[in-house]
Amino acid sequence: MKRVLLVNTNIERAPYPVPPLGLCMLATVLSDRFEVKIYDGVFDEGNCLVALVQQFNPDFIGFSIRNIDDVVMDRLIFYIDDILEKFIRPVMKITGVPVILGGSGFSIFPGELMDMTGADFGIVGEAEAILPVLLERIQNCQDTADIPSVITSKKSGIQMGTGFSFSQPVPSRFPEIDRWIDFTPYQNKGVYSIQTKRGCAHGCIYCTYPLIEGRKFRARAPSDIAEEIEQAHHRLGYVTFEFVDSTFNDPKGHAESICREIIRRNLKVKLRTMGINPRHASDELFELMLQAGFIQIDATPDSASPRMLESLFKGFTLPDIEKLALLIRKYNMPTMWFFLFGGPGEDESTFKETLDFIDAFINPADLVYMNAGLRIYPGTALYRIAKKEGRIHAGQSVFQPPAYYYSDQLSKDHLDHLIRQASLKRHHCMPALETAPSPAMISQAIELRKINNLDEPMFRTLLRIRAKQRERE
Ligand code: B12
User: Cα–Cα distance between 193 and 100 in angstroms, integer?
Assistant: First the structure.
């Protein structure tokens, strides 16, 4: 049996370490025909990788590239230098076996990453159906040019979105993540990731999700999802499950069915999710989520200005967001809210509309994350707008340095000032740069949780401390 080594190059551990679900999926699919190992770099950062390559002696090596940068304009962490230095170059120095790239970050910038790394092949988007075919062809020295989504080093420079097919059903067989990697370090600090569907049918102008996963929702059967959660819960005991879908409650009814299946099985699990679509939020959804075990959600409306919601093409309205906020308060669902300022047409009055919404509707016990500047990605409507407005020129790479969009009507400095002012007046509003709490604050929060036996999400405890600090100032 030929051997395949799959390498997770993600060393980002903030806001928490995330297990390499996609690589575990690929390992599961390949394991029928290959001997497969995963090297997980999250905690080891490449230190033992070369030794593993020497010992395992793989015939193929796949590198997963998830993050390119941190999307925080004033921090600008660029992950690729570390990925090259700690993972790809040391391995390519000691072996000449075919190197294949993939992952969500890679899928946004395939041409740039093929060029930078000198890899032999890349796969854009999901790879369960494609990777086995590619490996088979390479093994048999056959041509690979006709395999959709595959890029070879000679073909690099390919544009996202051309010739890729997202028509495959989502695999029903999902991996036991802890079978492939050491899950111990994730158990307390991290989460167990669950994907309930692929694709995103929304058209938010800046977003890459439809490009990475396709534009149609392709849902898994709720019984398969609940079964996966039940099995992982039995194996691991204490762990929080997190849904990694673009939006959890789309298409309408899917999230409700998943919750019902979890409730029917009487699973005593902790759940959280990102991406609740305000349009499809309802009493029924919240009641089911609470019963199923949700302890926390993210709400990501980006704006609460009617004009900006249209400009960003969010597909929902201010009344939809107000309804969501009321539901969150009614059911006291701990929530992290995310707003993104500076899109086309943002000005002081639209900024104020969002602030007014925050003041009127958001529970001050909940965190409001305020980010400024929209990362411009290739293949998105924002890229086309930026080009039309002459901010980027035809063919310009927005990979490194990353390009950001700021509205003409509100300069970056002024927007930063408005966000700073808003957060000074509101203890629960945080500029993107300040979201990492100090070690002293974390120790204080741990102490407070112990003394008061608090079982709330950590961000709520941290906000209590911040509110007290603000009262004293
Ligand atoms: C869920 C999610 C989160 C959750 C993670 C929760 C969790 N439990 O995992 C949260 C909110 C915490 C998060 C945080 C961040 N995220 Co995020 N996240 C996502 C999201 C929506 C899905 C990722 C996922 O799990 N997909 C499901 C799995 C099954 O798919 P997959 O891993 O991609 O694998 C498939 C393919 O990619 C491919 N593949 C994967 N590896 C390989 C390897 C080879 C060799 C091959 C051939 C194929 C292949 O096959 C797999 C199976 O089909 C993506 C966007 C997207 N739609 O992909 C953004 C995304 C990955 N995140 C992104 C970013 C930037 C971040 C943060 C850095 C943001 C920040 N400043 O905090 C952090 C980093 C966190 C960390 N520790 O790494 C960016 C990365 C692009 C960029 N600019 O760098 C993305 C693409 C969103 C975007 N802006 O476009 N994120």
Answer: 24
Distance 203 CA to ligand 1 centre (A): 19
DSSP structure class, residue 279: G
Q: What is the DSSP letter of 170?
A: P
Please name the residue whose Cα sits nearest to atom 8 of ligand 1: 193
166/155: higher pLDDT: 166
Q: Separation of 42 CA from ligand 1 center, angstroms?
A: 14
Alpha helices in 147-272 (DSSP H): 177-180, 184-189, 209-213, 222-236, 254-264
Pocket test for ligand 1, best of 66, 68, 172 (most atoms within 8 A of CB): 66
Q: In the prediction, which pLDDT does 431 show? A: 93
Residue 101 has a pLDDT of 97
**Among 104, 151, 404, residue to substitute to test ligand 1 (most atoms within 8 Å of Cβ):** 104
Strands (E), 334-396: 335-341, 367-372, 374-375
Tell me, in angstroms, the distance from the centre of ligand 1 to residue 104's CA. 5
Q: Full-prediction pTM beyond 0.90?
A: yes
Token readout for 232 is 């992982």
CA distance 79 to 66: 9
Q: How far apart are CA 102 and CA 30, in angstroms?
A: 15
Token pair of 397, please? 């790479």
Give the integer Cα–Cα distance in Å for 175 and 133: 20
Q: How far is the CA of 124 from the centre of ligand 1 (A)?
A: 13
